[in-house]
Amino acid sequence: MEAWIVVIVTVVVAVVYHGFKDRLKRLEQRLSQRETDHAQVLAQVEQLRQELQKLRTAPPVTTPPRPAPPIATAAAATAATTATTAAPVVVPRPVVVPAEPKVAPAPVVPPAAPEPAAPVVPPAQVPVLAVSPAATPTPPVAAPVILPAPAPTGSKPEPRPEPVFTPPAPPRPTPRPVPVEPAGPTWWERTERVLLDNWTGILGAVVLVVGVGFLGIYTAVQVTPPVRFAMISGFAAALLGLNYYLRTKPFAARLHVWLQSSAAAIFLFACVGASSVPGLQWAAPPLSYALLLAGVVANLWLAWTSSRESVATLHGVLSLVALAVIPPDLLTLGTAAAVTAFCIAITYRQQWKYQLLLSILSFFVFHQYWHFSLALPLTGGARVTAMSLVVLVGVAAAVVQYRRVYADSRFDALLFAAHVLNWTTLGFNLYQYSTGSPWKTIPLALGAVLTFFVARRARQLGIQWLFQTDTIISLILALATAFSLQGWHATGPVVGLFMLLEALLIAFIMAREQEVLVFRVATVGALLAGLGLLVMITAQLTHYSPAELHRNALIVFLAASLGAGYFRLTSAQPLLSPAAPDSSTSQALHHGFGGLLGVLYLGVAALVVQALFGVKNPPVGLLMGGVAAAAGVVFGLARWLRGEPAWFRTLHLAAGQLLLTVAILGLHKLGLVWPATAAVLYLETLTLAWLLGRFTEVAAVRIYLGATLLAGLWLLLSAGPGQHLPAASLHRNAALLLGAGLVSAVFFRLLARQLWLSAQVSTAPERSLAQALGGLGGVLYLAGAGVLLRALFGPQQPPAVALISGAAVAAALVFGLSRWLRGGAEWFRILHLLIGQILVSVAVLGLHKVGLNWPLTTVLLYAEFLLLLGLLAWRREWWVYRVQLYASLLLAVLLPVVVYNAGHLSSEQRALLLTLAALATAATQATLARWAAPEYDVLPFSYNPAYRLRLLGTVAGLLLLAAGGLVYQHTWAGWAAVGVAVTLLALRRVVPVPGLWMGLLLAAAGYYLLQWYHVLVAKPHLAAGAALGYLLPLVLLATPGLALSWWAAQARHVRWSWLYLLALHVVVIGWATAPFPLAAVAVLVWCGAVALAAGAAQWLRRRFPDPAALTRQGNPDRYLLHVAYGLLLWALLWHFTAVMNGTAELWHLPARRLSAAALVLVLTGLAWRQPPTTAPVYRSWQLLHPYLPELTVLFLSFTLWDEVPLTWQALLWLVLAFALTLGGRHLPARLRRLQLYGVLFFWLSAFSTTSVALRYLAPGQLLSIRWLTTAGAVALQFAYAALALQSYAPAEPLSWPAGLSGLARLGQLSSRQLVAALLYPAFGALTVLLVQSFDRSVLTVLLMLEVVALFVSSLLLRRQDFRYASLAGVLICLVRLVFFDLSQRGTITRAVVFILMGLLLLGMNALYARFKDRLAPALATDESAEDVAPTMGPDEPQPASPATE
């Protein structure tokens, strides 16, 4: 077994290797040929270039090349005379024209005359020119002639030296190929070079570092710490000696300085190691301190003597690092402070900014390390001493900035950073010694004052940034002083007030001194202080006691009022004037503080509200008086602020209103209910808005109008219909709301009369707010009406008559106001008309409480709506008319709901009410049409006015339908409906009632549906006579509908709707009355109806051949076709859902087969009909009729699939394929595309064959029915393939419907594609049949036979893909032979199988050897491009093969 596997694998590898080797050899040959061609092209190019060069430089035929040597001799003589003449000789060379034969017409002038400069360029050619001279006296004569020759042109004659060498030379031999330049280094060579260049250094460095590391380890292990100290010190001494030796060397000017610093640093490291580093420590106190001090002193001495800032800084930092390793105590801190002060003192001599900055930073880091290393906190004198040392360093660093050497008016970022860092670190260091003592306020205050006045010194020196910085620092210290007042038990608001006042003081002083930056910083501080104050009172608002609330309210009010005074005084300073440079930021901050004051006033209001409503038993009168007084103060401030920015004065007016609102809210604590309080607030804001309007306070009026709107909304929320209140409260709230609405209307009118308001444009905010006020009045009216409704229908026994009278009186007042409002805002008057209608509606609805039932009340309300609609149309109130019309339509929609579900009336009474409402609607629509009312109830179904639907007229029909829905069960109701409908249809022809026809049509359609529901669903077993008598009236209704459906706008009848209804009703009559219990009978009847409708359409088309006459009649043939298609679709659905799965028989035949046959006949007849050739051609002919042939074939296929067993289906599909392929050519041209569907049935047959073989066939079932049918189907598949290959292509173009154009590709298949589409499925089905039918003992041989057949097909058809597929099949068969047959079969069987396989393989080999020439064109094609000529048929003549037998 393993040997066979090895043999097969070896053979396969050998075959693959052989193919790969041949392919590679061919590629090498191609590459070699291309290289040869390339070399030949290069040689030809070189030859052509040489020939062109000869043509350019060749002299005329009559002139010999001999005159050139004298010129060269002259040039040589000139060069020998003086050395400088070489340059002039070179210069003329680029001036001479190379194309001289074109310019010089005289042949006397030799073209080589201007050539003497050329030999100078190639030095190797100079001796040649010197050897070839011939002494002739003629060159001097030629020279003057040559001089004017270069003037006409300016080209460069590079090829001039060639004539000197070419005349004596023989003809140039054939040029050899240009040698190829050596290629550059490859990427591997470059990579190798990079590795060699870089890794030597890296490895050397690594080895050196490792050696040093081992030496250090050895040294640390072998010697004692003192010796190590001595070695390190000796190394430092060696560096110092080297520095001494190099100090005079010019090349070591920088090196000796760093050697000296390195020596000092290494010595300091040795001292530190001897004191505290493990492994190096050997000295104990006080010797260790002495060693450490010696190292520090050495470094400080170097820092003092150094002339370089970097060196001095380094030694100072190293000294502090050394001090950090000894135990922390005051001595260590003092030493570090002294070292730092010494380093800072160095900067006094010259401006060393980096040293100053790093000294401050390094001391801060050292102090932090020292402080956190203490075992216990410092107390008493030690703490004071430490603080003094820290202050010493801070003062030393701060004072340095005030020296003359630092006096510079320009801003220095490093000095600024050092100064800020010094103050920051000083503050942080001192904070670490804080114990919470309240006495820190005094030094903080002194520091703030001292810093403020010291900053003036910087101003005197001209250091502006230092002045600004220290002033800001003084502000920070002042804020810290205020913050420290907490130690004296000052509350947070008090501290915040002091911080705010301090910031305002600094800001005011800076504003007077015009210091922009400090002013901005102080203003920001004031903003932060004010925000902090607000945050404090907001966070603790609910936790304050009553006394704290009162005190904090006073504090915040003082802050706000004093801030207003500051704002008033500061705004007058030149710093904030618009003309000041860069004043925008300052003004923005200043205005931001002004806005913060408004928030502070808001905080005052919040505190007072909390004091009023968050505390039990508050002093209401005192608080209200205080708030009122505060409001008066704010109003006084607003008056005092006149002349300032208007928005700040407006802010105070708004703040005053806010405080006054709080005072009004306090009325509730005195016993006034919330709705009344809201009403008082509403009236107060309205009054103040009117007064401010008189004083032309435009911005304030905006705010007050907004406040009025908010108060009105509060009134709505507190007194609106959403509150659950007793009856008396409802009456009060309704009166408040209606009264507020009336007052709003009066004030709206008064505000509109103000000159300043009426002069505004319509889009101004004031007008919009006033209009919003008018809208609020309307909402108040609506809320009052809602409360009235609730008062009517909420309590058990309301005073209905009083409430109805009140609603009527209110409606009268509103209507009267609408008359008074004429000449003002039109929309406001319209609003009052609508509100009046609403109040009248409330009064009408209240009649139900008097005793009327809901249906009658609703009908009366609807009648009132229609009556008012007519009055509005008469008075030409079109805006209100539109709203009333839409409301009437809405009520008409709700009317059937109310009539159906309310009251205790009979169905007949309800139907009568709805009928009366419908008649009233029709009458109203006729009246409106007579008065030419605007068509606001139009539904524009199209831009054409003729297609617009009038809703009011349509509603009349819908109300009739609602009435019919109550009594449709009765037979008399049908006759009554016919009478009413015919009367209204006849009335429509006399009196124009827009929309009535559509309403009647909808009513008729709905009533049809009701009757169908009654006879088919509600009472399906109704007797035939009763059903006929019940359904007959509507047959009579369709007749006048067809006759009275004239459409005057389009001058034609509209009969399609009545025709559809009549057809459907007749179908239902037949279904309900015919004694046919079988569902298939219904399909047969509908098929007959389809044929009848189609025939009638065809007759009408012949009856009215003129398109105009047909259109005037309403195109009945078109809609009859629709009826036919609809019935056909319904018959198909009924067949699939109710008939196909049934077992009933009709006339001793299955009913489903009869219905299917009838449908097939009808579909065939409809598909066979030819579309009309004259206009009009309907869309049904264009969109539905073209698909009927495919629908017929599809339905027939489905029926056969359902009726025929699976065993015979493959043969059946092939029969259909043969029939379509052979018979399709005899069909009409529009149906001839069915011929192409034979391929689809062929594929379906192949699929069916494969499915049957996989599901039902097994070895040992040969000659069974299923095997025979399957095998016969497979055989017929090959027969069909042969037939299709001969007669598949259509002779003429086919017509395809729009959606099936993709199937047209079936007719566009080339012969190669068709062969693949037919033979691959056939061979696949044969393979499955063989696998499923035969035993494994012969399966491999049979599969090999199929492979041979496929191979033979590839030879016959010249198909390369078939050859590849056959080779793949051979490989599969070999694998099966080795892995299955060899291991599972007996000896004899294996022998037979192997013999047969061998014979078949030999046969394939012989066939390939004999007929391989047929595949030669295909092989050549595959090497260049794939399938160049796909349209060549298998039997078409092929090009002759170059190979012979």
Secondary structure elements and their pairing?
Blueprint (H helix, E strand, L loop, with lengths): L1 H56 L10 H14 L4 H5 L9 H4 L22 H6 L7 H8 L15 H4 L21 H36 L2 H22 L8 H22 L10 H19 L3 H15 L6 H20 L3 H20 L7 H20 L13 H19 L9 H21 L2 H20 L8 H22 L2 H24 L6 H26 L12 H30 L6 H21 L5 H20 L8 H21 L3 H22 L7 H26 L2 H4 L6 H29 L6 H21 L5 H20 L1 H4 L3 H22 L2 H24 L5 H24 L7 E3 L7 E3 H17 L3 H20 L5 H23 L5 H20 L2 E2 L4 E2 L2 H18 L5 H25 L3 H6 L3 H24 L5 E2 L2 E2 H18 L10 H6 L3 H16 L2 H18 L13 H20 L8 H23 L23 H23 L2 H22 L2 H25 L2 H25 L4 H9 L21
Antiparallel strand pairs: 1-2, 3-4, 5-6
Helix pairs in contact: 9-10, 10-11, 10-12, 11-12, 12-13, 12-14, 13-14, 13-15, 14-16, 15-16, 16-18, 17-18, 18-19, 18-20, 19-20, 19-21, 20-22, 21-22, 22-24, 23-24, 24-25, 24-26, 25-26, 25-27, 26-27, 26-29, 27-29, 29-30, 29-31, 30-31, 31-34, 33-34, 33-35, 34-36, 35-36, 36-38, 37-38, 37-39, 38-39, 38-40, ...
